[in-house]
Request: fold
Amino acid sequence: ILMVETIFDTLNAKAALYAIGEYLEFTGLDIPVFVSGTLVDQSGRTLSGQTGEAFYASIRHAKPMCVGLNCALGAKHMTPFVEKLANCVECFLHVYSNAGLPNAMGGYDETPEDMAEQNKVFFENGWLNMVGGCCGSTPPHIKAIREMSESFKPRRLPDVGRPKMWLSGLEDLVVEDVHNHLGLPFLNVGERCNISGSLRFKKLMMAGDYATAMDIAKKQVEDGAHVIDINVDDGLLDGLAAMQKFVKIAITEPDVSKVPFMLDASKFEIVMAGLKWCQGKPIINSISLKVGEELFIEQATLLKKHGAAVVVMAFDEEGQAATADEKVRICKRSYDVLVNKVKFPPEDIVFDPNVLTIGTGMEEHANYGVDFINATKIIKEQCPYVKISGGISNLSFGFRGVMKIRESIHSVFLQNAILESGMDVGIVNAHEMLMLNEVEPDIREAAENLVFNKTEDATDVMLELTKREKDRREALKKGGGATKKKQTSWRTENVTKRLEHSLINGISQYIDEDVEEARKEAERPLHIIEGPLMDGMNIIGDLFGAGKMFLPQVIKSARVMKKAVAYRIPFMEKEKREKMIAEGKDPDAIDEDDDSQFAGKVLMATVKGDVHDIGKNIVAVVLGCNNYKVYDIGVMCSCEMILEKAKEYNVDVIGLSGLITPSLDEMVTVAKEMSKAGFKQPLLIGGATTSKMHTAVKISPNYFTDEHPVIHVLDASRSVTVVSSLLNEETKADYVADIEEEYDELREDYYAGLEDRYFLTFDQAKKQKIDIDFDAVPVAPQPNKLGVTVIDNVSLEDVVPYIDWNPFFQTWELRGRYPNRGYPKIFNDEAVGSEAKKLFDDAQALMKEIIANKSMNLKGVVGLFAANRTDEGEDVMVFDSEEDRAACKPRHTFCMLRQQAEKESDDPYLSQADFIAPSGYKDHLGMFAVSCFGCDALVEKYESEQDDYNKIMSQALADRFVEAFAEYLHRVIRTDMWGYAKDESLDNEDLLKIKYVGIRPAPGYPSQPDHTEKSTMWSAIQAKELAGIELSESLSMMPAASVSALVFAHPQSQYFAVGQIGKDQVESYASRKKMDLPICERWLSPILNYERD
Reply:
């Protein structure tokens, strides 16, 4: 045993423990270490002033086997201090006290019996594991204590629980238990002993006035600092000497050294110099990967040996992290190195993801506050037990000189960063900190807009407020009152302008009070809509049409409009009732569906069998913003329901939407039935699988006339132009004539193309298939997990790194121009970049809320089966077992389609069946279906709150979650469940570029454009029974946020498009599927190269 004992100066003990650690590491020996402190009097402190708990916190990094107290006091006087140690020490605990206090002659009077009796309380309370005697004790004393203790059980080692950061000065401090003077769970690190944080401190240090500098340190502790930051970095100062001198003096000042220190320097040797003078456990600020991983590990290892906590900056070899993604990436990499390689205690890691300056007037700086807050939460999630810190004064550096403004910005920032994202630590001026409710309302609003990058003019507004505060201070200095300069904020405008501003900028905060004010001024409640609200919406429509406003902004404006209308409805209803009573009419006979004030009425529906409606919802909102009454009758609407509701609502236009290919055929059916029933309304067609060509060739001939044309609407931005052109009697005729001419040309081109294009017969195509040599390039090994597996343990957090954000921006119709196409380059686009970033930030905020509330969840099912292609080579058989394979007793057969359109090259004519080996080989086929559940409930919630923006955002995020889940699960299949690519090490960018081995084509999509194959898959993996994923009558997956796919493992498998096929293949396909030919043709209608009967 190596014992460091009778410690009255902890710094000396730490030096001894460091030396022991070095010796044990060098020799490879494993020798238990005991540490024993000495409390010199009834104050319960060591000679150097530490409490017992602080002493233990200072040396616990050495992982002693046993810790305790000895000497100075008798057992009786040690009792309260032993109790405190017993409540906190995680290892074994000992006491070897003196035989009482010394008498006048320096001797000890306690008899063996007396000393044993004084020690008895330790055993009765179960505080000790080891006991002995120090000064004044003799062998008879030890014998008496042993005999007394034999009937007691030793102290039970405590359950240590969740790791916590345990710092110390003269007193100990558990960071997780701290609340600051404002009541926030936050560690205040005082910034005033930092040359960068205090001009006064800098002057004192340059002058060598350390005594006065100590007064600054004391004042910080008095004002609520839990830790003192010490930084003496200056080009004209010897940092090494200054740090040592300051710490040496500070540790002799009890009012300063009672709190832990944060030793802060840009040079590692300076913080090490200070560390060697710290008897407590400090925080070192900082190290980072910018020095390279090798030196980073070396520095971290040294700090670990000295028992210090450490601040790790979000820097690496490439520079400082500015964006949220970069902050997270660097911190996670640093965490992995520290925890896995250095074995650094994760609870002693403090990440500083860089609080950067906002309000500079530079657009690229505007989101720095949001990036820090977003990164904080993700880092805390991905790096267990760490703390997050930052230099808060950096945030508002652009407003220096006006402390009221700066601290208001800090208050708003910290309230969110601490309570919402989990920030733990900050370098602050505790005396100046404000509670959020102490911030003046107008400054608070401006600070929120600035910190969260809500408005483009946030910096300008804050500069105006800063100028106001400067003027006020100058007036006070001159003996006058506060200035009364007129404010230029939009809130000072008249109510009409305020309503327009709220609508255009999507601000709902003041809408109720402004509508109420407008109502009181208006002659009638309806005039509010016809006046300021519609004026605002007209401006929005003009800006959107001119490309100066983007879809997310329009959706936000619609949310404000709905809230405004909802507020005034009760007043309009009251006015109607009073008028009817005055006219002697029955007020209960009022027409609740009076829509005479609208520019037109549009019915919108997702057709039968299809559950996708996000695009339809967006179009509905855009039309609503332009004063069109939209009747959205939902999803999976039958033809009968669509026609019935169109009559009931007497609409002017009918819009059909659909995502899956069977919906195209259903739209043709609706067009035919509308024609039979004599409908006169124009028919609009939209959705992901629709096209102008399909509309012109397949749908239009069944209904199009000059009175009621059929028009394909590419996206929401075109919908207003189309509807307004159709409902304007002056422009309708010319507009329809142009559409008719265009569609005639499209039809001519289509049919001419069919005549010019040559198709191989099905037999010819089969002869020219790809011929994979399965001997030269063998099939994948047998899966590790054959059969069906339910996947219900994947969290949203697990799949977030796999999200492809490009389709998200496409959903919102935000498209960057070269070279700024795609995520994240879209943020740099001159036209849409700013709005794309705001949209992305909103998505991140809602995503975090969804994850925190668990309002969405993921579930799926995977099947991995023995498989071979059929002898004919066109289908794939799957088997339950090798015995069934040997007996050729397939459980299911997946029917495939082959390319037939002639190719100008020698490329083969592909079918998915080509990628599975024939009988004689032990090949396998995978498949899965996954869903994101919970979106429908969120949509209902936001609909009830009239919040179209978050309704659509929820749907968009659900789509991203499930697509990411599919990407995540496919990787798990490749590397684990099947395991044919167990050594795969692709990053997310490579995954999105499909650089992995194998493919995962989905039924209903180009490689197998027949949705009926989903039924086979659902039967094979029991997707409905095991995962709750259903199929509609048109084989649309429910919930809408669902993905399914087949999984092929062979390295020569590839994605392709079947394209159009001939009747000979369709006949063969229907026969193999045992399906009536007309039914088969209906399902394959979009890819037939002939007109079906």
Q: What stands out?
A: The first helix runs from residue 10 to 27. Confidence is low (pLDDT under 50) at residues 481-488. The radius of gyration is 37 Å.
